[in-house]
Fold this sequence. Notes:
Layout: E1 11-19, E2 22-31, E3 38-39, H1 49-63, H2 70-91, H3 94-100, E4 103-106, E5 109-112
Amino acid sequence: MGATRQLVPLDPLIRLVHRDGTPTDGLDGFRSSNGRIWGTYFHGLFDMPEFRSQFLSDLKLEYRAPSQGQHQLSEFRNQQYNLLADHLRNNLGLAGLWFWLGCILTGWVLWYVG
């Protein structure tokens, strides 16, 4: 596990009680005062169903994602993916990336050259 040196006052994110099967008492990671920014070396956090469920429930409350109907949730998810795709498309040099990967970008169609 890595180590981070704290340069500004931040709240700890995780209290460790075991490390590699050995009892310990330590902290890992930091979070901003509003809790919206996290940084940690802890792996597998989202593999724990209880944590994942609570984390997603908290996000749902904060961002008011639709809660009723699978169709609404699917539509909301697709809108969010499209927003992310637009952001990446507008802020990354994707043409250079596609070229590097051996692809040619023609409008919205990718042709693999290989």
